[in-house]
Design a protein that fits this description.
Largest sheet of chain B: none
Helix content of chain A: 25-40%
Largest sheet of chain A: 5 strands, mixed
Largest interface: A-B, 54 and 45 residues
Order of helices and strands of chain B: HHHHHHHHE
Structural class of chain A: alpha+beta
Structural class of chain B: mainly alpha
Radius of gyration of chain A: 24 Å
Strand content of chain B: under 5%
CATH class of chain B: Mainly Alpha
Number of domains of chain A: 1
Distance between the termini of chain B: 64 Å
Shape of chain A: globular
Strand order of the largest sheet of chain A: 13-12-1-15-14
Helix content of chain B: 55-70%
Number of helices of chain B: 8
Oligomer: heterodimer
CATH architecture of chain A: 2-Layer Sandwich
Number of helices of chain A: 21
Number of domains of chain B: 1
Strand content of chain A: 5-15%
CATH topology of chain A: Alpha-Beta Plaits
Number of strands of chain B: 1
Shape of chain B: globular
Chain lengths: 496, 223
């Protein structure tokens, strides 16, 4: 067992209201710079929809992630041979037009326009050329446009959804959508790291944050094409790639990342997950139908005595262990089995898990009557407005059972709470619903509490990074003498 | 006098600039060491420029290098006319490939306004020196046959004399103008490396070949 600690996340999609506050917090903190205008390390997509960059999920276009290939997962369109022979032209690199051309408005025109019969307008100006342009796409261009033929119908996840179901979904009266906030998954088997020819991208051992060393990056751009989530971005001005840093300066000081801190719907949870690094290569190479399970098996129970012992031996601090035991991610992902990785078939073992959207499930129509009575709550999961195949394509590599079980659990919690607070249901029904899904009333209450009423400290359980001990952590302390505190980006030394 | 300047002073200046300049830039301004790819801003035409240009150049570079390092072998190879023709035709084809790619690249730079913000004055110089270099190279191949043979017997010794710090410019001084331009612009190009995007070929990621795919860095040293 090679035990390691990872900062992992859970997004509860039922709670996401699609307000983009996370994206704005991130943009204002990190990417409001020349060359990074188009980057949204965190973005929110309307699903069904084509997303940002357009159709990012379609790896036939972008060639991201890994494929099962013999004993080891193999990079789909990069790697040593492929990467070094296509280094003069990366055939799978998305171009700016796949994202959008960034622009701002010439607001000064509003003040400086001469008096006239017309209202002055602020013209959109390209951030690249500085010329007047007509915006044709944006980071959330298809926001709330679920039913539109251009966006929702081109969603890659409809490949297994029947024509009838699709037509039904796209009828104006039955149209439904949900939001999918996305950011770097800080994967256990990161494709960006594996594809980087310069070796500039690395995973931090202590907390698993994936970072790009800007001094080492030479801008070969294979991380951009290899990340199946398209969460590594090329800065066209500096010629370097950049990505989400999980706000590590905030994490190291005990604060939640800006996107999570600012989340209005409080959908985001962050905590420690312990895992066995020796199992990564097997988990990433499992058969497609076993991918979710094999990833779940990688995470270790922080209450298990053997795990605690091994963690101590591996030098994982007690404070991290404590954080792992309190981790909301552990609860959602393993204890309750409510959260799933996004597109596990990309085989990168992402550490961002999603509680799939239960709503709007109760919208069955019988004889043209909108059926929403509580009696039918239970039975409508299978006929939920979002086809099960669709959710399965997003979260379980096509396995409908996995998604259905989670939705059933979420429904069971609702029935249980309804019984408890309103009391208009048969107690039998509540007990049966819980029983069917393997939940106890205590678990259901805990799920309810962490879902609906969590405190800040329950949503974000951040282990201390012990920067104050960082020097002691180095074995050769004398080598690092004089290097703590406020430093210099360049050595203050004169001469050569 | 002019020959001394062009074939003794210039080469040494260029080599010193290459050596010291590259080390300096790599050590103190490492962040800027890359080619500043523009594929992200324009990714379609680039394919028809960059790919033939780079592959053509790679073969031409190693062709010149082999003729410099193993002149006897090249002359021996050229002893049979059929082999000489194969070598010359191959080299000329790579030259044409490079030129066509280069012309595509220049045309793309000029025609795509999106690329203006990422084009520096040094890039213009890079294009000019490359055009001079490739065109005079092709001209030499056509006009002064057969280059592969006389390079090995005339220029290889000259280059060697430079590297052993005992420059002998008698033979180069007698070269036709086009060939002289080709040699001079080659040294200018070498000297330009640390000041231009040429730097990127010095950091070609060979280490990727033997490194492990996944990279994990610990703050704490691992036992």
């Amino acid at each position: 067992m090679n035990i390691r600690s990872q900062i992992a996340m859970v997004f509860h999609l039922d709670k996401c209201i699609g307000c983009h506050t996370c994206s704005i917090a991130c943009k204002n903190t990190w990417t409001d710079r020349k060359g990074a205008e188009y980057m949204w390390w965190n973005n929110v997509e309307t699903k069904p929809g084509t997303g940002y960059p357009t159709k990012w999920e379609d790896q036939n276009i972008y060639g991201g992630g890994f494929e099962k290939n013999g004993k080891k997962p193999k990079l789909k369109s990069a790697g040593k041979a492929k990467g070094l022979t296509t280094i003069f032209y990366n055939p799978k690199l998305p171009a700016m037009d796949d994202y959008y051309e960034p622009w701002r408005y010439r607001y000064n025109d509003l003040f400086e326009a001469p008096e006239g019969d017309d209202q002055p307008t602020a013209l959109p100006i390209s951030d690249i050329t500085g010329e007047v342009m007509t915006p044709k796409a944006g980071p959330n261009w298809d926001d709330d446009f679920s039913g539109s033929p251009d966006y929702a119908r081109n969603d890659v996840n409809f490949k297994n959804v029947s024509k009838e179901e699709q037509d039904a979904l796209f009828q104006l009266e039955r149209m439904s959508f949900f939001y999918l906030p996305r950011m770097c998954n800080h994967c256990l088997n990161p494709a960006c790291v594996a594809a980087c020819p310069s070796g500039a991208i690395y995973k931090r051992g202590e907390d698993g944050v994936v970072l790009i060393n800007q001094e080492k990056c030479r801008g070969w751009r294979f991380c951009v094409s290899s990340c199946p989530y398209k969460k590594s971005y090329y800065n066209w001005k500096t010629g370097k790639s950049e990505k989400c840093i999980l706000c590590y300066p905030r994490l190291e000081t005990g604060q939640a990342p800006a996107c999570m801190h600012s989340c209005v719907g409080r959908i985001r949870y962050l905590g420690v997950m312990l895992y066995d690094a020796d199992k990564i290569k097997y988990a990433a190479n499992a058969e497609e139908r076993d991918l979710v399970k094999s990833q779940m098996d990688i995470y270790l129970n922080p209450f298990d005595e053997a795990v605690i012992e091994a963690a101590k031996k591996a030098g994982i601090p007690d404070s991290t262990m404590e954080a792992a035991q309190k981790s909301p991610v552990w609860k959602f992902v393993k204890e309750w089995g409510l959260a799933l990785p996004l597109h596990p078939e990309f085989r990168t073992l992402p550490n961002l898990f999603y509680v799939p959207p239960l709503l709007p499930a109760m919208a069955s129509t019988a004889n043209n009557v909108y059926e929403s009575t509580s009696e039918s709550l239970w039975s409508t999961i299978e006929q939920s407005r979002l086809p099960m195949e669709y959710l399965a394509s997003l979260f379980s590599a096509g396995d409908k059972e996995i998604v259905k079980n989670i939705l059933k659990k979420m429904m069971a919690v609702r029935i249980h709470r309804r019984n408890k607070t309103v009391g208009d249901l048969e107690t039998d029904e509540s007990a049966k619903a819980l029983n069917d899904t393997g939940l106890t009333p205590e678990m259901a209450d805990a799920i309810f509490r962490l879902t609906s009423l969590p405190l800040y400290d329950e949503r974000f359980v951040i282990p201390p990074s012990h920067r104050e001990e960082a020097i002691q952590m180095m074995e050769e302390t004398h080598e690092y003498r004089g290097e703590t505190g406020l430093g210099f980006t360049k050595k203050p030394k004169r001469g050569l | 006098m002019i020959n001394t300047l062009l074939f003794i002073v210039l080469p040494y200046v260029a080599l010193i600039l290459l050596l010291l300049g590259s080390i300096y830039r790599y050590r103190f301004n490492r962040f800027t060491v890359s080619s500043l790819s523009s594929q992200f801003l324009e990714g379609k035409e680039l394919f028809y420029g960059s790919v033939p240009f780079h592959w053509g150049l790679v073969f031409l570079f190693f062709g010149h290098l082999i003729a410099f390092l193993f002149p006897r072998s090249v002359i021996a190879w050229n002893g049979i006319p059929a082999r000489l023709f194969i070598l010359e035709i191959a080299a000329f084809s790579f030259g044409l490939l490079t030129l066509s790619g280069l012309i595509m690249l220049v045309a793309r730079r000029v025609n795509t306004t999106k690329l203006y913000p990422v084009t520096s004055k040094m890039d213009v110089l890079v294009y000019m020196i490359l055009l001079v270099q490739v065109i005079t190279g092709l001209w030499t191949a056509v006009g002064y046959r057969w280059g592969s043979s006389w390079f090995a017997s005339v220029l290889s010794p000259y280059l060697k004399s430079i590297f052993v710090f005992n420059p002998d410019i008698a033979s180069v001084s007698a070269m036709p103008l086009i060939i002289k331009i080709h040699i001079v612009s080659a040294f200018v190009l070498v000297g330009m490396v640390p000041f231009t995007r040429f730097m990127h070929f010095l950091v070609f990621p060979f280490t990727y070949i033997w490194r492990r795919y996944q990279v994990v860095i610990w703050n704490k040293k691992q036992a």
